[in-house]
Structures
1.
Amino acid sequence: LLLEVLEVFFLILTLIMSAYIVRHYIFTLSVLRAAKNKKQNPAESVKYKPSVSILIPAHNEEKVIGRLLAQITNFTYPKEKMQVVVLDDASSDQTGKIADSFKSKYSFIEVIHRDKSNGARGKASAMNQGFSLCRGEIVLCFDADYYPQKDIVEKLSQCFLDPQVGAVQGRVVVLNEPQNIVTRLVALERIGGYRVDQEARDNLGLITQFGGTVGGFRNSMLKSLQGWDESVLAEDTDLTFRVYLAGYKIRYNVDAECYEEAVDNWESYRRQRYRWAKGHMQCFFKHSWNVLRSPKLSIREKIDGLMLLSVYFMPILVLLSLLIGLPLVFLDSQNSALNAFLWVSIPICLYSFVGNFAPFFEVGAGLYLDGRTRTQWLIPCLLFTFFFNIPICLKAFFDVLASRITGKNRHVWEKTMHSGNGNCYIENSS
Amino acid sequence: MLDSLLVALAMASVVSVGLLFLPAIVELKKPRDAGPRLIADNFGKNCSSAKTSLINIEDESKLDCQLADIEDYLCAIKNVED
């Protein structure tokens, strides 16, 4: 009986994985098809130029904040319609001074200094304080380590012509990709996520995800939602679902590109992914029921929303299926050795093709669309991040579960430190 | 019979995995497409135009060589006919 229960459970897990495969095949085909029929829509031709506030939270970002502010002063968007709010979040380095020097030169730049008594409580807390000062119709957010295109404001703000659009997301591209194997693998994941996944969701009218940076909101909508939820670690995913549940849509503009400085060592990678996984799981418990019963979401949005909310459970399901597969091999005497081999190999192959978050074929399609050639050779190396994410997500799951059972919110914001290793690529290129 | 099949399968798996990672090792040792992808309008365009003109020059010099070769062949054929 135990074996039969295990077999049924195993099949259910395999079915869930298959559902994700189908979903991502649809995504990939949709983007490949759209790329064929793509028409250029140059940002210069857009007449819609609303007032825009740009929020930049910064905690100990002295190595990168200067390049971002310098790039913002080169933006092609009319400066009289721009307000830049830098949030120096209890920094102990020169971040505040660098921001102040820009403030003294440019009237559209404002700086808020948060000291240790009210600062360093996470990004959402800083964003809420900065948001209270935003005067623009549109509020855009950039992390301090980001380096956007000069015309990115035009590209992002044009999406708000549609009154149903409450938020917008642009594309993230890894700046320090050549640095080492970690940055190269992160770049692959980003390409899968932003070149294919996000664009497909936008094309298919599904749940486009706001990534917390390189994007923005309609000010009035964000006010009605009362800003960011400070109790959730993935405040971006949380806001994504609150936007959709309020009846608005999020658009994605793949042409609005912005560099990011990716994590460059495995420890930083682990900490960042742990924060994302935990935050995402918090959002799953917070929103999944609301998504299911929302009258403002279509059936396909509900299905995609639930799959998006559960995506960080995937590595745990992989582990479960492997654990179940092994007793099926050794205890089921009726099975031949070949069948036993298949029991183990099927989930491994299946889940390996699925990947954790962006499946391998999706990454390949993204690289093809970007015109990348030999980087495709690195795709098998994603197996390492695939297995590395299993313990990360498992720990996040148990921590979320523990905090739900005990009722104690023990979430601590672990900030990703940026070493400025991407600076050399900008300087060399210019 | 079954044991040897399993051994063969295991060996095939090891070889497949090795082959799977070989290109990745090559690209990591000698990166030729390591990025970063140029996105910022100011320097992105300069780089791509410089690259294009370089390619055109190469193409033209190749074409010149090919034309010279064809000319030689034609002369040779003419000599044979004579």
2.
Amino acid sequence: MTDRPDMDAINRLESELMKMTPARVPVEMVGQIGEALRRDSVARADRLLIGAMSIGLLSACAIVVLVLYGEGMSAPTSFPLLHTGNQVLAGTEFAWVAEGR
Amino acid sequence: LADDAERWRRVLAEHGPALLLFARQWSASAADAEDAVQNGFVKFWRNRKRARDELAYLYSCIRSAAMDLGKGERRRRAQLTRHAGPAFEIPADRQEREAAIEAALMLLPADQREVIVMKIWGGLTFAQIGAAMGVSMNTAASRFRYAILRLHAELSAEVSND
């Protein structure tokens, strides 16, 4: 049979432990953490900027393609550039030519 | 940004000493423990808004950073030979007793020691300790109970040996 633990002694030990103060964080370490956090936030901002720029670029390309496609659809022949003899005309210009404008 | 800097400084001032003590459980030296706190803290700060419990997540980040740093075989061997420096601020009149407690702490199995550090000096609840260690609240509580009993036994044995 095992002895029952002396709960008073255990409680005393617990409060004794609580009174012990862990060693302080060195000042240089705080500086290093600050620098690491700054580098991390700059890297994240760069990644966000690159992401936003990529999305912007892709959107711009998509808009240009849609506009050209739309223009091509309104022209009488094929998309996106139309050949008239030796001339290469954009869809709208060809449409105007075709309408005699 | 100034607010952000103010916030992380406050969190570090409040929890830094306990985190450093916690990181020392796996570190070969005080410098390694500082590196672990730095790496873990940056990871915590980046992802803290997604954490269910910030304090538990902070300890879990420090734990994995310290374990990663302590993984190398060379570091493990170094752990046996290098002295990590004082882990506590010890008042002159309690040097002997606190040194005995620190030595008794080092005799505990790692999983019991980390529960003691999180509970006593980190002020975490058993639920938070369980979340940080990936175990249930009850397991965390029993590890704490075993650890305290064992510490008490070690320290009593030392007193009776003197």
